[in-house]
Amino acid sequence: MKVHVDWDLCEGHGQCEYAAPDIFTIDDDGDLTVLDEAPAESHRKDVEQAVRRCPVRALEIED
Hints:
Elements: E1 2-5, H1 15-19, E2 24-26, E3 32-34, H2 44-53, E4 59-62
Antiparallel strand pairs: 1-4, 2-3
């Protein structure tokens, strides 16, 4: 599994960080950081939830 972020769409809402804090974080400037671009399968449910929660649909999972 690989996490893909469309940086042109991302607005830093932070819903991904809420859903998958081990994978995503929003820094003090409000910018998204992907902590793990290829997370283990054990994180799949959290990453899927992060994708669903993104209000601008900036996230996707590549298998």
